[in-house]
């Protein structure tokens, strides 16, 4: 496939992705009350084999080819067209999570670290325990785990998968409603970030157990902790130079923006290299960036292109891996119902109760529980890793995807219901900044 053909296909892919996301978002927001992020997730599933592939399988496979290329040596490699799309989607996610970090109210986190730890702890321990118990029960009941995977490895993986939170979606829901800077909005962001960081460390332990190499987990956990500490205590004072440069130049110039992007890409690469997801490198760097005029201008330069163009590609690319037709028996649907019930009880209700204990009102606690319960496409990422690493079968992959879709679709209507008639619904973004 020539470079010219790859470019032609990429342009058509982007056209279809952006048009589909826009149409689904308009309809979803108007008739279902969903946010942009949920609609983009649905659009991704629609463009995959479950709908687009069922209606026009040949065209869908041509436009979004999943079949790998087979080299003359017999080696299989991903189709270059999808590799390009994947790379673009990751850049969009990195930029978006960096902007979320720039908006992050670190002062509120310092005041509420215990509350965030309590909510995050509940959101990890309860679903992890229930997921691990379910894995032991399901291990011999159906062909859900690949041959050679031990019961303990299956329990660790399913527990970590149940513990994940759709942090990018949680963040975007809060920002779309203008409540990310509020007291409980910041608590939800902090708990979500701590939750996902822990879940990725658990995944590293699972991968280490499969490869009989504890250094994988130790390197991920130790390297991640070192990165956070260095960013906070060394990076934050150093990054203040951007404020001085911006003041000197009378605004954020392109040279300064390029320098920021260089640092961002390096930090994202670093956390990916130590087996933590690149999104956390971007987010932590964003939290260390200086605030004030520099941060405002940085958001102005990056926000629209990221949210309107790059981020939808990430959601759609992940949704392309979903195959809902694999769950086709009453027994498998019963297992699916069990997984969904465990997910809601273990994550949503546990986080709600933890937030209440932390001092939030019942409405705010329930909102946090609904947001933390959404798995979204971060769940699809961890599921794809499990499938590629030979931990789970396509059947369990599909069951877990259904769970992710259900818990994510629940989030927006529940948040709307819990916040109805409160200051968070009635106030503008500007008014909420000091709540």
Could you name the key traits of this structure?
single chain, Na+/H+ antiporter like fold, two-stranded antiparallel sheet, 435 residues, 2 strands, mainly alpha
What would your notes on this structure say?
- By secondary structure, the protein is mainly α.
- The chain has one domain: Na+/H+ antiporter like fold.
- It is 78% helix and 1% strand.
- It contains 21 helices and two strands.
- The protein has a two-stranded antiparallel sheet with strand order 1-2.
- β1 (69-70) and β2 form a beta hairpin.
- α17 (362-373) runs antiparallel to α19 (394-419).
- The longest helix is centred in the first third of the chain and has 30 residues, at 3-32.
- Mean pLDDT is 82; it is low at 426-435.
List strands and helices in order, with pairings.
Elements: H1 3-32, H2 36-47, H3 52-55, H4 57-63, E1 69-70, E2 76-77, H5 80-103, H6 106-111, H7 113-138, H8 151-163, H9 167-176, H10 183-211, H11 214-239, H12 241-249, H13 254-273, H14 278-288, H15 293-319, H16 330-357, H17 362-373, H18 376-388, H19 394-419, H20 423-426, H21 429-432
Helix pairs in contact: 1-2, 1-5, 1-15, 2-15, 5-14, 5-15, 7-8, 7-10, 7-16, 8-10, 9-10, 10-11, 10-17, 11-14, 13-14, 16-17, 16-19, 17-19, 18-19
Q: From the helix content, strand content and strand pairing, which structural class follows?
A: mainly alpha
Main β-sheet description: 2 strands, antiparallel
> How far apart, in Å, are the first and last alpha carbons?
55 Å
What fold name goes in the CATH topology slot? Na+/H+ antiporter like fold
How many structural units, i.e. domains? 1
- The portion of residues forming beta strands comes to under 5%
Integer average pLDDT: 82
By CATH reckoning, the class would read: Mainly Alpha
Q: What is the N-to-C succession of helices and strands?
A: HHHHEEHHHHHHHHHHHHHHHHH
Helix fraction bin: over 70%
Given the structure, what is the number of helices? 21
Topology, number of strands:
2
Q: What order do the strands of the largest sheet run in, or round the barrel if closed?
A: 1-2
CATH architecture: Up-down Bundle
Uncertain regions spanning at least 5 consecutive residues: 426-435
Rg, rounded, reads 21 Å
Coarse shape: globular
């Amino acid at each position: 496939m020539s470079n010219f053909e790859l470019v032609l296909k990429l342009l058509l892919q982007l056209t279809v992705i952006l048009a589909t996301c826009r149409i689904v978002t308009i309809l979803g927001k108007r008739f279902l009350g969903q946010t942009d992020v949920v609609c983009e997730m649905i659009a991704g599933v629609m463009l995959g084999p479950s709908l687009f592939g069922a209606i026009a399988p040949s065209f869908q496979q041509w436009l979004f080819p999943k079949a790998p290329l087979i080299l003359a040596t017999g080696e299989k490699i991903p189709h270059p067209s999808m590799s390009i799309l994947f790379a673009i989607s990751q850049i969009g996610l990195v930029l978006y999570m960096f902007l979320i970090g720039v908006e992050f109210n670190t002062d509120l986190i310092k005041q509420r670290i215990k509350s965030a730890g309590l909510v995050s702890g509940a959101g990890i321990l309860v679903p992890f325990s229930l997921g691990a118990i379910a894995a032991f029960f399901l291990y011999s009941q159906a062909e859900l785990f690949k041959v050679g995977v031990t019961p303990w490895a299956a329990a660790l993986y399913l527990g970590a998968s149940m513990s994940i939170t759709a942090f990018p979606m949680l963040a975007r829901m809060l920002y779309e409603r203008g409540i990310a800077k509020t007291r409980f909005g910041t608590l939800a962001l902090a708990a979500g970030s701590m939750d996902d960081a822990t879940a990725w460390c658990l995944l590293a332990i699972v991968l280490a157990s499969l490869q009989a190499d504890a250094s994988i987990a130790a390197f991920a956990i130790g390297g991640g902790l070192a990165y956070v500490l260095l960013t906070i205590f060394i990076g934050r004072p150093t990054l203040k130079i951007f404020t001085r440069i911006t003041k000197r130049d009378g605004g954020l110039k392109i040279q300064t923006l390029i320098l920021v992007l260089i640092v961002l890409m390096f930090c994202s690469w670093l956390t990916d290299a130590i087996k933590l997801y690149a999104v956390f490198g971007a987010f932590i760097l964003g939290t260390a960036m200086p605030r004030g005029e520099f941060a405002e201008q940085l958001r102005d330069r990056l926000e629209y292109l990221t949210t309107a163009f790059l981020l939808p590609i990430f959601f759609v690319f992940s949704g392309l891996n979903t195959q809902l037709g694999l769950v086709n028996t009453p027994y498998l649907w019963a297992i699916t119902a069990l997984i969904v019930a465990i997910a809601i009880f273990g994550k949503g209700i546990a986080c709600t109760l933890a937030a209440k204990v932390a001092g939030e009102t019942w409405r705010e606690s329930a909102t946090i529980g609904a947001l933390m319960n959404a798995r979204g496409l971060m769940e699809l990422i961890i599921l794809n890793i499990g499938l590629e690493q030979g931990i789970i079968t396509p059947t369990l992959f599909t069951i877990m995807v259904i769970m992710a879709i259900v818990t994510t679709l629940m989030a927006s209507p529940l948040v709307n219901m819990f916040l109805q008639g409160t200051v968070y619904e009635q106030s503008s973004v500007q008014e909420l900044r000091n709540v």
